[in-house]
Amino acid sequence: MFKARMKFAKEGRAKYISHLDLMQAMQRAMARCQMPLWFTEGFNQHAYVSVALPLSTGFSGECEFLDFNLLSEAVPEGAVGAVNSAFPEGLRAMEIYPLSDGGMKVAEIAYSRYLVTYRFAAGVPEGFAEDVRALFERDTVEILKRSKRGEKLVNMRELMRGLTVETEGNAVKVNTVTAAGNNNLSPEYITKAIKQYLPQYKIEDAAYHRLCVYTEDMRPFR
C-alpha cells in the first residue's frame, strides 16, 4: 500500500455536487476503471479518500486535490485517462502521482487564489470596476465574519494578499488571494463587502472559481 494524490478540476454542472456526493463519485469512477484502491478491513469496509480544502457547493475549481491509498506499488499506467473515462461531466483528472515522501501536508495550505466573476445582463454599471478596485485599496475593509464560534468583525484586508479588477464584456473579474485553512476568508465575502460598502450597485450574478492554493510562503500546493 502507498499513498497517491490526484489533482483534478471540478467545473460546469459538477460544481453543484455536494462534498459527500463528490466522494461517492470519486470512488465509483475508480471502481469502474479498476483502480487498485486500498480498503479498510473489518465489517464496514471503505476506501480511504480525502479531498484537501473541499470547495463549497456551487464553487468551481481547477486546483483540487484528492488523497487515496493504492494496493499496487506504483500508479497504474494511463491512470489519468482511465479515471477521466469514468468521471461524470464536469470532473476532470489532471495528474495522479505517488506521495513517496508523504507529500505536502494539507495543513500547510494557507491561501487560495480565486477568480470572482460578476456578470451584468445590461452591461457593467459605469464606475463599478473602479469603485471595487478603490474599495479594496483601503487599509481597512471591515466585515462581519461568521464561523463555528459565532460572528466577529474582521478587517478583510488582513486576510488578503492582493486583488485585481478587470472588465471583460458584460462581466467584471476579480482575481484575489484570500486566507485558507483555520483562518479562512471565503471569496463570498468579496461580494458581501461590495454590497455593504457599494450598495448603489446591484450584483445580479456572481461565480467563484478557485485557481490555485498556496502554502504560507506562497508556494503552490502539490
Topology:
Elements: E1 2-10, H1 19-32, E2 49-52, E3 60-70, H2 79-86, E4 91-98, E5 109-119, H3 128-135, E6 142-147, E7 150-155, E8 160-168, E9 171-179, H4 188-197, E10 205-215
Parallel strand pairs: 3-10
Antiparallel strand pairs: 1-3, 1-4, 2-3, 5-9, 5-10, 6-7, 8-9
Categorize the overall geometry: elongated
Number of helices: 4
Percent in helix: 10-25%
Report the C-alpha radius of gyration, rounded: 20 Å
Q: State the end-to-end CA separation.
A: 20 Å
Give the ordered list of helices and strands. Answer: EHEEHEEHEEEEHE
Please mark out the parts with pLDDT under 50 across 5 or more consecutive residues, or reply none: none
| Main structural class | alpha+beta
What is the total tally of β strands? 10
Mean pLDDT: 92
Biggest beta sheet summary? 8 strands, mixed
Indicate the proportion of strand residues: 35-45%
What does this protein look like?
There is one protein chain. This protein is an alpha+beta fold and 222 residues long. It has four helices and ten strands. It has helices at residues 19-32, 79-86, 128-135, 188-197, and strands at residues 2-10, 49-52, 60-70, 91-98, 109-119, 142-147, 150-155, 160-168, 171-179, 205-215. Strand 6 (142-147) and strand 7 (150-155) form a beta hairpin.
